[in-house]
Design a protein that fits this description.
The protein is mainly alpha-helical. It has five helices and four strands. The protein has helices at residues 4-24, 34-40, 47-55, 82-93, 105-108; strands at 32-33, 68-69, 98-99, 102-103. Strands 1-2 form a two-stranded parallel sheet. A hairpin with a 2-residue loop joins strand 3 (98-99) and strand 4 (102-103). Helix 2 crosses helix 3 (47-55). The longest helix has 21 residues, at 4-24. The protein starts with a helix and ends in a 10-residue tail after the last helix.
Length: 118
């Protein structure tokens, strides 16, 4: 029988797996907000957790981290930083346009039919 600490670790691992599967499902040319991904991964209200998970991705991860932006359409990095420029370039290569450092969520936000990606 697992002790509560081990059960909690298992739950956290499963939650991260669900998040990573959800991120992987974001189609090219679309974006999702941190909060949207938290909800889709079963962690409603945990937008900061999504950010934490992204910061701790392995360097060689193939997840499309660049498709994740704030709910207001901004990139999470300060403009003119290397990370901002790399994310913007990746988005623009996929056809996502920024105007005044913002993405139109109305135009580019990933929509799921039943609020789940699968």
């Amino acid at each position: 029988m697992k002790v509560p600490h081990e059960q909690r670790k298992d739950q956290q691992r499963l939650a991260r797996q669900q998040l990573y599967q959800t991120i992987a499902a974001i189609p090219s040319g679309k974006v999702a907000s941190y909060g949207q991904l938290a909800t889709l991964a079963g962690q409603t209200g945990a937008a900061r957790w999504v950010g934490w998970c992204l910061r701790h991705l392995p360097k060689d991860s193939s997840l499309p981290w660049h498709r994740i932006i704030t709910a207001s359409g901004k990139l999470a990095f300060p403009p003119a930083t290397e990370s901002y420029l790399r994310q913007r370039e990746k988005l623009e290569k996929e056809g996502v346009q920024l105007h005044n450092h913002k993405v139109s969520m109305k135009r580019f936000q990933w929509q799921t039919h039943d609020n789940t990606p699968f």
